[in-house]
Amino acid sequence: MTTPTGPAIETRTGWALLLSAFVVATCGLVYELLAGTLASYLLGDSVTQFSTVIGTYLFAMGIGSWCSRYVRRDELRVFVRVEVLIAAIGGASAAVLFLLFDRVDDFRLPLYGLVLVIGALVGLEIPLLMRILEGRLEFGDLVAKVLTFDYIGALAASLLFPLLLVPHLGLIRTGFLFGFFNVAVAIALILMLPDKRLRGELWAAILVSAALIAGFFGAERVERAAEVAAYGDTILYAKSTPYQRIVLTKRADDLRLYLNGNLQFSSRDEYRYHEALVHPALSRVANPRDVLVLGGGDGLAVREVLRHQQVSSVTLVDLDPAMTQLFTASGMLSSLNGEALSSPKVRVVNADAFRWMRGNRRKFDAILVDFPDPSSFSIGKLYTVTFYRELARALAPGGVASIQSTSPLAAPNAYWTVSSTLEAAGLRAQGYHALVPSFGEWGFVLASLGPLPAARALPAGLRFMTPESDRLAFYFPPDMARRATPVNRLDNQVLVRTFEAEWAKVEG
């Protein structure tokens, strides 16, 4: 048996370095996507966060590329060190940012600091690789092959990240996994090109690999530690789904649901919110038989709908099957919603409400819209004139819709934008509000095709809504009174920007 020497080793090394270009490009884009996704999860406004993170990352890559000119010798050794550094910093970046979110005064400083450091290191990689390969390939062939592998790696990352990595591994495990891929490149090159000068780098790479593996398998503990610090209560349940992070906490008898860190309900006063969402609408429909609930995968709005004996059919459309399954299967949670999701009257559809409404041809006597606040453009599309036209088309004659519409006290411009948008869609809008201690003064809007009918009798057993509270809910004092607001459209999403600006003032 003969051992490959000379050109054979050079060819093998060349292909190994080209494969490294693919791996480092994939890893580099994953770190960029991790930072953008984390920023949008934790800070809201996904377009702004992704734009600023990507811009900062590309700027940092430019700095790294420019700095590569000062590496005059030992390019392979420098490249190995860069890989180990990227593995350590990039691999742990998601975990570090989660842990820092509630522990620092200005989260943007560590966020953009990490983006700058990782981007600069990634910017060093390709110039160094090209210089290492310079003697092994013709210049034209060199550039073409390196950039080809680089772009293929970028495509792989952009497909894997949303379709496989985030849904199945979550953000923290994804970071650790790709950090390991980076350090694996360094170890492979050290072993392929034995050099006594690289012993120190080999030991560093092995230690970083061990830390990344430990981090990967301990990711759930890291996430729990971050959430315990953020919520301050006992965490009963936490799960990342392809659509959101679901966290349930408990303190004494208070059960709370958070989606992506935003409070959705407190069991102590959720009845106020859900009674206010449901009963003013259904009590104004002569015979509410077919009801559509959009959002509200916790089943609490459905519970209130089923109090109306005339209702024979409820269709619940919620994006996340993990939510509806959780609030159906868990005894503690199903008791909270009165086992509403198991009722034979209820049909659960897990689908994107925007697309589902466009394909729907059925008419409903009442439609209850229980979406999260418009804190991102992906949710903001559900508050646009385009969506409300579909809502108007789905209303039966004499039907009434109720839309949760944020706080008219904390965010009055955002609140009244919902009314303006409903009216632009051809509906008549009537705002009302209720005090929900966990949220403060909260707003809703009733929408109908014609004049809004007077309220009929409310069902028995309500804890909050009465004929008197129903009447008072439609009075707005001057600090919450209607004002001129623009229409929220798909191409401007003015509501999201208004919502973020107003709540930023409230939250300081």
Overall description:
The protein has about 500 residues and is an alpha/beta fold. Helix content is about 55%, strand content about 15%. The chain has 17 helices and eleven strands. It has helices at about 5-45, 45-65, 75-100, 110-135, 140-190, 200-215, 220-230, 270-280, 300-305, 320-330, 330-335, 355-360, 375-380, 385-395, 410-425, 465-470, 495-505; strands spanning about 235-240, 245-250, 255-260, 260-265, 290-295, 315-320, 345-350, 365-370, 395-405, 430-435, 440-450. A seven-stranded mixed beta sheet has the order 7-6-5-8-9-11-10, sandwiched between helices. Strand 10 and strand 11 (about 440-450) form a beta hairpin. It is elongated and about 85 Å long. It starts with 6 loop residues before the first helix and ends with a helix.
Helices, strands, pairings?
Blueprint: H1 7-43, H2 46-67, H3 75-100, H4 108-133, H5 139-192, H6 199-217, H7 219-231, E1 234-240, E2 245-251, E3 254-259, E4 262-266, H8 270-282, E5 290-295, H9 300-305, E6 313-318, H10 321-329, H11 331-336, E7 346-350, H12 353-359, E8 364-370, H13 377-380, H14 385-394, E9 395-404, H15 412-424, E10 428-436, E11 440-448, H16 467-472, H17 494-507
Parallel strand pairs: 5-6, 5-8, 6-7, 8-9
Antiparallel strand pairs: 1-2, 2-3, 3-4, 9-11, 10-11
